[in-house]
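FAQ

Q: What does a record look like?
A: Structure on top, sequence underneath. For example:
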């Protein structure tokens, strides 16, 4: 009886295989450490095949970044069944999970390791999603943010990313001075209060209750 010949891998399968190797490489070494040679070695393929599917090192880095960004965007989609009052905490938890999954990639993205129009557009979109879903604003009632709210939202995203980066890099001196994951999660929710003056009701009232509850819990634990 003759042995069946294994089916040839199609182009999409080969690209997925190479991209998975590139993401694994970036998770270990960051975007800057990913090259056609390292991906080819990890996947057991040739450098020529890597360039065939991704065109250049920059194209390879962009494809890896897209994976991390799309996974984060998917993680931020809290089920419709989650009550509004629980959404910010649920989303903050999912946000930290997704970023920690690819922390080396996110550190490089936040550090400007990949600068191009496509990546900037994807980052802008996922940042807007984070604010919208955390604040129960544009995504829940469909209003157009004012310039003042948009500016505050960008500032809050920068704060959120800096807080998360500090936690991921264990910055803060001694172990006693370092942020824990619970610290970061509660700070992300409580700091949303900066948006309150520019939000319309009902999101403003809902978010005020959530951020106030987090603040009171923080005060109680410190007392």
């Amino acid at each position: 009886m003759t042995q069946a010949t294994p089916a040839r891998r199609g182009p999409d399968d080969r690209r997925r295989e190479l991209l998975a190797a590139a993401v694994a490489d970036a998770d270990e070494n960051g975007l800057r450490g990913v090259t056609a040679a390292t991906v080819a070695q990890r996947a057991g393929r040739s450098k020529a095949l890597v360039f065939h599917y991704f065109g250049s090192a920059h194209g390879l880095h962009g494809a890896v970044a897209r994976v991390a960004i799309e996974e984060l965007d998917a993680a931020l989609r809290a089920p419709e069944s989650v009550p509004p009052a629980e959404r910010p905490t649920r989303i903050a938890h999912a946000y930290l999970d997704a970023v920690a999954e690819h922390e080396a990639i996110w550190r490089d993205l936040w550090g400007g390791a990949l600068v191009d129009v496509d990546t900037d557009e994807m980052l802008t979109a996922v940042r807007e999603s984070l604010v919208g879903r955390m604040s129960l604003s544009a995504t829940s009632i469909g209003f157009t943010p004012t310039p003042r709210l948009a500016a505050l939202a960008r500032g809050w995203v920068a704060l959120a990313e800096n807080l998360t980066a500090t936690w991921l890099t264990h910055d803060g001196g001694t172990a006693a001075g370092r942020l824990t994951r619970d610290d970061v999660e509660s700070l992300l929710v409580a700091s949303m209060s900066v948006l309150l003056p520019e939000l319309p009701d009902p999101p403003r009232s809902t978010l005020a209750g959530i951020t106030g509850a987090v603040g009171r819990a923080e005060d109680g634990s410190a007392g």
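Q: Is there anything notable about this one?
A: The chain has eleven helices and no strands.
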